[in-house]
Every structure is written in structure tokens, then in C-alpha cells.
Known about the structure:
Blueprint: E1 53-54, E2 58-62, E3 76-79, E4 82-86, E5 92-96, E6 102-106, E7 110-117, E8 120-125, E9 129-134, E10 139-144, E11 152-156, E12 159-164, E13 167-172, E14 178-183, E15 189-198, E16 201-209, E17 213-221, E18 227-232, E19 239-241, E20 244-248, E21 260-269, E22 275-284, E23 299-305, E24 308-313, E25 316-321, E26 333-336, E27 343-350, E28 353-358, E29 364-368, E30 374-376, E31 384-390, E32 393-398, E33 402-407, E34 413-418, E35 428-430, E36 433-441, E37 447-453, H1 455-458
Parallel strand pairs: 1-34
Antiparallel strand pairs: 2-37, 3-4, 4-5, 5-6, 7-8, 8-9, 9-10, 11-12, 12-13, 13-14, 15-16, 16-17, 17-18, 19-20, 20-21, 21-22, 23-24, 24-25, 25-26, 27-28, 28-29, 29-30, 31-32, 32-33, 33-34, 35-36, 36-37
Protein name: PQQ-binding-like beta-propeller repeat protein
Domain Pyrrolo-quinoline quinone repeat: 127-374
Keywords: Signal
Amino acid sequence: MKKMMHRSLTTGLAVTSIGLSLISSEFAPTASAEPSAVSMSNGAYSTAIQAPVIKPSWSFPVIPIDRNQYSEQAVAVAENGKVFAIDSNHRLVALEGSSGQKLWQYGGQLTPVLIHSNGTIYGMTQSGSIYAVTASGKKIWTTSLGFAKADHIYRIGSTVYITQSEQTAAVDAASGKLKWKISENKDSYHGLNNLMETDGVLIRNYNVQGSLTFEQINAYDAKTGKKLWESFRTSFPLTVKDGVVYSLANTFMIDDDPVNRKVTIARYDLKTGESKGDRQYRWTEAENKDGTFQSGGIYGSAFLYGKDLYVFQGKTLASYDFWNYKADSKPAHKWSQGDYEQLFPLSSIHEGRLFYQDFRTGGLIAMKLASGQFIHYDYGDNPTVQADVFGKGVYVGQSDGVFHGYDLMTLKPVFSVNTGSRSFGPILKSGGMIFIQSGPSSACRQAACISKINPKISRRI
Length: 461
């Protein structure tokens, strides 16, 4: 059950005015309390979180991220007990996770776009080149791409893919040799952040602008970059199996029946894009008397987890056996989504919990699939800026600069850290170590920070 921990308005106010002493008692009116024009209390309360306040074991200054350009990027990755980060001088540095000792540094004028894969760090320079460096700091290769605003790097098999909005490049992971580089129409395409390769076919998603803007997937030959097919109003694949692509179709303004609702799963041949027929999952709703039609998110999105397709049906969440589809089949399970209008599905299940974001508060919410009970992880004393879940721990950075660790299963607060920052990046975890990415603070001389917290504390969750 949610604990309400919101700030409430002050119900009593005492004011002392030294100016009254200047008025002669002969002419002074009788003192009386002035009533307020408006006074209200929302009945909520704020309680201090009872958890040990700890200090980071170490902190290291890193480059701040421009979220307008790198909206989903972090300045660091943690692997095998080490942290690799872009420091405040735009260099790649390696830090020993336990002590924060700098092991080596590489390059200069680097951007906060990097990944770690198979013992190699791949990153981008401000001039638009991709580089590969070993985990010991030795340069392997550098390849010029002209991607000065690259947004993502992916390593799939023997290929490294780099994206920059509507552009995509493929580079050999071992040698750095450019395989191909392509670009869609920059006036109508805007690249999104999903990319996959299967059976020699690369699939990437975009927002494509026509009379309306919708998601589209494009399929390319992974060896040459040649476009094989495209599908407008189609989401990134739920899955690909036996040469068939399964994707959620967007039917907004095509089939807007407010009572007889449905989610459509389109099926395409992986190599040719030929339609293999649609699947439809149907439900009914009471007619909305105000005439509005709501679509997407809690009102008709879906995701696949194992063999189960979860379909968000407004007030109801339903699951279906995806691989035993029958037209108009009933759900295998149903759950009430309660006050569903505040929920935004994150399409993620962990420890028997399905996660949402509360888009009124920005906080993290989970539903126990076994019981249907909702759990709120935003019961701190300030709004949530960043929330991450690892194992049985929930890590929350608040807008007041306080970072909290909670037990996922019991909701009990385990520790708090005063970072002095109002912004956070994704939390990093390697083994039993937790690393906090935060914005400028006095701890890092007003630079952004990466900080490691006590592993004995973090291991409790």
C-alpha cells in the first residue's frame, strides 16, 4: 500500500512585526489576528526516511551530459569491478571500482557515448570517429565516420553499429573497417533507440513524419546495408521467430472504436516484408461519454515476456499464451490496474513484479503479478529524478539531491546518500558495488560525479 509522503501546506503561521513599536499606543488599534484569504490542507504528510546516511567511498569528476543531445546516454560503464568513464577533460579513464584509483586514461575530445563488450570499450570522438580500446587502455583502432552527433553504439556479433538520428554505420569489430554507411531522408526520419540483427537482417526503428508522425521499422541486409523493406505504423519487433517478424501495429485514427477495442500484432516475412497476416486481441470498454478516444500506453500497448503477451487494456491488464494463438481467445490471466490513468507501462517484469511509471509524480510503481497488489517506490520526501532496479534493490535519486536505496521486496529503506546534486544518470552496478552518476555538486567541485557507495551497505539489497 502506498505511503503518502508529500509535502503539506503549513496550517499555522506566526509573524512578529517590529514596526508596531513605532506606533503610539494612543492611536494603535486593538491587536487582532488577521484571517487568511485562503487556507487549506491536503491531508498528506511528510515523514523523514529512517535509514543510515552514508558517504560515498570515493567520487570522481566526469563530463556533464547534455540531455538535449544525449538523452539516454551515460558517461560511464561498469564492468568486471572497474568503471570506464569520460572525465571532465573529455578523456576516457579507467577506475578501480573498490578504491577509485585511476588506472589509465586515453584520448581527448571524446563524447559520452560508449559501451563495453567482450573486453573492449567502444566510444566516439567529438569529430565523429569511433574508437576501440582494450580494457587495459591500449588503442586497437580508430575509424572516421563523420558522426559528430552519434547517439548510440551497439555490438552485435562481429559488427559494431553506430547510429546518428536517421544515419546508420556498420564497422568490423575486430579491425575497425567500415562495412557500410547509410542515411534515410533527414527531413522525415528521426532515429529511435532500438536496433537488432537476426538471420542476416538488421532491423531499426524510426519516427517517420507524414501527415502524422508514427513509428516505422526498416529492415536492411546486415552485410551491405541495402534496404529490404519498411513498415509504417509498426513498432520495434516483439520478437522474430522462424523467419517471421511480430510487431505491434498502430491503428490510431484507422480503427478508433471506443467500445470494441483491440490490439493488432502484425506479422511480416523477415527477408521480404511480405504480410503473414495479423493477430488481434480484443476487449470491450464502456463508452466514454466525453467523446475522447485514448490510445497507446495503458490504453492498448503490449509487450512479450517469455511465452506471455501482456496487453494493457485500460482498467485491465491481460496476458495471453502468445505461441498458442486462437482468434478471440480469452486471456489466460487478468489483473485490475486500479487508478490506471496515472500509469505508464515500462514493459518490464522482475522478481514477479511488473513495473510502471507514475506520470503524475514521475515515481516508480510495481504490481505483484501473484496478487495484483500495487507497490509505490516513490514514497520519499521529494520527487523522483532517476530510479533503477538491480536484483532485490531499488535505487532512487530525488530532486533534492538525496539518493535512497530500498529493499525491493519489503520496501524498507536501507541507506541514504546526500549527493548535493539535483540531477542523476542511470545507476551502475558491478558485482557488489553500486556507482551513482550525479550532476554538478560541491563534492566534485561543481562538476558531474560518479561515486561509489559502501559495498557492505549495498549488498543488503
